[in-house]
Amino acid sequence: MQDSIIRHLIKFNTIIIGGGPAGLFAGIHLKTGRNAILEKNSQAGKKLLIAGSGRCNITHIGLIKDFFEHYGAHSSFIKHALKQYSNSDLLNFFENCGLKTIVDKNGKVFPFSEDSKDVLRLLEHQCERNSTEILTKQNISVTKTSDSGFLLITSESEFTCKNLIIATGGRSYPGTGSTGDGYEMAVSLGHSVIRQKPALTPVFIKDYKFAELSGVSLSSRQVYIYRNSKKIKEHRGDFGFTHKGLSGPGILDPSRFMEQGDVLKINLAGTNITEFTSDFLSRASIQGKTTLLSFLKDYDIPKSLIKNILQEIGLSADDTLAIITRPLRIKLAELFCEYPFHIEKIGGYEMAMTTAGGVDLDEISPKTMESKICKNLYFIGEILDIDGDTGGYNLQAAFSTAYAAAMNINNSIDTSGI
Ligand SMILES: Cc1cc2nc3c(=O)[nH]c(=O)nc-3n(C[C@H](O)[C@H](O)[C@H](O)COP(=O)(O)OP(=O)(O)OC[C@H]3O[C@@H](n4cnc5c(N)ncnc54)[C@H](O)[C@@H]3O)c2cc1C
Q: pTM above the 0.90 mark?
């Protein structure tokens, strides 16, 4: 049977699918032909609005060379785009567009107003100034190559374009529109996609004993990830207790490596077992009446946490060092230097700030974001197999990859008369 639906046919030079930060930033920097962003929601940038708890941590202030270690195993890919369009370039861009910024004590950069609406408004306004059309409520059902480039079909329209940029994001916070549609588009255009999993996500702990400590946090502690009794990774960062597990940058950043069943050993005391033991023995021999609470507080461990752990092995905060037997001392050292938290599950996409996995980087040019498989096809932002740490590294990656794609399109002369 013939398709009887009559759709409008609209021609563009470049179409960007997805109006998140990556799509909008590409739209701002395209300089040739008639261009559009097709966004499936009724507004662009829904995820950007909730970034940084609504404050929008747009980038980090550190040196660009220090960014590379913040993308897991994928720094060698992302460094080209970051060097081509660095955090300084981004901050100059925002400043030239009239957005003042502030930097917090950890080097995170926010708009001065600490309101992500200002960032979104600016990006949309700059798209408008650049005559890039933002067409909302456009849910693309089919993406395929055609004689003149690409053909995109929605329920009401058909679009053709010479260049196609896919910027549909990952799977995290699906309520914002990032439901992983772009992966199917990538596959239909010949690409491989690496299995995705939630990243920058909290963990739920088995037999969790610290619910009443929810909100308590410790700064700069070493976290060791063990799988089948073997250490597979370690990471240092701040972490905190939640009602059902652990969160904070020290957990979120390495969560891309974690799996259900792994054990997180956390160095609560901030010193290793040997040093802890020797400190304990020397204090016990000189000042045997020192209480466990006073000894452990010197390691900057919150009182509520000390009491909770001591209770676990039948000790009281008021017990003195002198009465601790050797087996108990060994247990104390183990618990305070390598407390084992067994991961029941890692947080799902509804709470993960980003997605690990995505379009296979081996098939993408790191300098231009163009597909090595399909000419004039580009992938930018979170759809790529790149996920950054907390601190503004994901938005910077979205902006830098968007810029790389736009520049390559600008530099390819022929716009086929459109
Ligand atoms: C709660 C939260 C807080 C965060 N805070 C920060 C932060 O402070 N700093 C930071 O650096 N990073 C932060 N991130 C991560 C950051 O927001 C993302 O990495 C970034 O938004 C990715 O940009 P993107 O444009 O690639 O994708 P997205 O922002 O996910 O945008 C993709 C867009 O594509 C649209 N789309 C999807 N499918 C289709 C389709 N079929 N047709 C048309 N349109 C489609 C979606 O509706 C969406 O608008 C945070 C993430 C979350 C969830």
A: yes
